[in-house]
Amino acid sequence: MRLPASKIVTPNVTAKEKWLGYLIGPAGALLLNAVLATYLNVYYTDVLNLTPLWGGAFLTIFPIVSKIIDAITNIVMGQIIDRTKTKEGKARPWLLLSAPLVTVTGILLFTVPNASDTVKAIWVMISYNLFYSFAYTIFNMSHNLMVPLSTREGTARGGLSVFNQITAIMMSGILVALVFPMVIMPAIGVDQAKWITLMSILAILALPLTLLEYFFTKERVTEEAEAAGEQSELSFGQQMKLLFTDKYMILMYAYFFIYTIGVTLKNLGLVYYCNYVLGTYNDGITQMLVSVLGGIPMGIGIFAVWPLAKKFGKRNVTMWGFVIYAIGSLICWLFPHHLIIVLVGQFIKNIGGLPCAYVFMALFADCLDHVEWKTDIRADGTAMSIYNIIAVAMVGIMTGVFNWMLAAAGYIAPVTANSTSEAAAFLAENGYTAQVALESLKPAADGVLTVAMQQPESVTGVISFAFVGLEVFTGAALAVILFFLDVEKNIPKEQAEIAARRETKA
Predict the structure, then answer these.
(1) Model pTM?
(2) What is the per-residue pLDDT across 178-192, written as a single tens digit (0 to 9) for each?
């Protein structure tokens, strides 16, 4: 079958490619994923009230088992990409397929039927794996390979990496950090019908935007390999051996492994931290302040990071950034209940996180080029499958760990009531204390009250560690790893030798 042709035909990266293919195109799927990373677990614990299911075991075990499945599908998808040969590249064609799949499965995540707990559990497990282990795996694998496969020219590739991350950090951050806590969450509360409507809109938005990414990207590196007649017949095991006998790839994967653990637990803890430790449930202010003031450096970074990386090196600015990152996290952890201090700590922390956020994929691409220089083999699909396995496995494991911690600490989910008297009766019956006085609660448009409970200190301690404590340790560990990751010092020479080999072959 002949695939629709790319709108990009030039040998060099163009402005149209940056803006449409790398900034706007991925916005839909990445926005949906960013919202899910922050709120899907909230949907499970607060809307579907699945925390007590099977004595707390369901939300602990199901994410871990699901991510084992996801890891397997990532391996399969990496091999499929490496063996895909079309005029449109080996990764881009899968963007085309992922567009409708992400939309449909994204909607299914939230249309859980109002039935027995067993039916809910089965629907959650199936829909979760259809989205993450199937649809989003296809999108994420192909999307993440666009920067490494776009060009070898260092400045252009770094620019694409920055544009790629602007979408993930800024566009998603504006909605997740501003609109959701201030407007959307107070409006939808724990009403499942409103959640379904909202998330369906976001899922549908991903379809046309992902098609835009397909049409305005180009795999120049793949085209070079095909022109030179290169074809890798190595098995998955042989490619794994190539990758895991290279010290830079080992360091890169160790770096990403530790980073993902910290970021995942932080993302899971954000809403709970703002609702129960720093502020009150869906107050519309606390989460916005934490996310926005902490995220302002990300906006500055659009203009500052790449010039600094070109002057001092991608590794160096990222390494020293993580030292600052750990200091900011420590400030927050020492004073978890003090809003002003936490905001200052978040600001410092995110200044430190700037280089990692914007130049990581360019550094990863350097490692892939180094492996090619050493072995004369490009193992893009396998390398990205390992990268994604780390990402999805840690998301599943840390989600399970976080939910186990909440259940073990005694987390109490909010409830809905039609009146203050009904809410008061529920509290009295169960021995709970409302987080704020019932008389001060504002009902939603349909008159329903959402009543959040005052959490035990054990719960607030767990949430504080998840959001601000763990990254003190991960930040310090990442700085140490990056000290040894000096791959870029020889990369211009290695790329020149790769180009000379290809000219000889051609």
Answers:
(1) 0.73
(2) 778 888 888 888 889
